[in-house]
Amino acid sequence: MDIVLRRTGGDDPHFQMLVADLDKDLWARYPAIQQNFTPFNKIERSARVIVAYSQNIPVGCGCFRQMEDEETLEIKRMYVRPESRGKGIAKLVLLELEKWGKDEGFTQAKLETGNNQPEALAVYSGAHYKQIPNYPPYVHIAESICMAKKLV
What we know:
By secondary structure, the chain is an alpha+beta fold. The chain has helices at 13-29, 89-103, 118-126; strands spanning 3-8, 48-54, 57-66, 72-80, 108-114, 130-132, 144-150. The chain contains three helices and seven strands.
């Protein structure tokens, strides 16, 4: 499977379409609490976005934004369509986001995922992310799992 990765921004229509699918998936996994995450998942136009394509069809995405300090980025909105999972697409997107972040001078990546997302946890663990204490605004959310990795 040939995967093409494209760098774009938060207003990209393919990214917006994939994020809508991601939101449906998250509502199915976390029906009792997903409304609490909506304010944290807003993506600005300035976000650095990767969209993955297979045969010119958007199949996955992810993005990052700067966190509270100038050296840390936050990985957000990682998603691969169910029919395209298990093919390494999420890892490719994640590695490209890390590369882009390093190119921009970031030295650390953080992210938040959930305990009902074993696929995401496997990708992040496989990419050497380590669990850290939950950072704001996820500090008191039992379902949240926060992870970090040094970008070297």
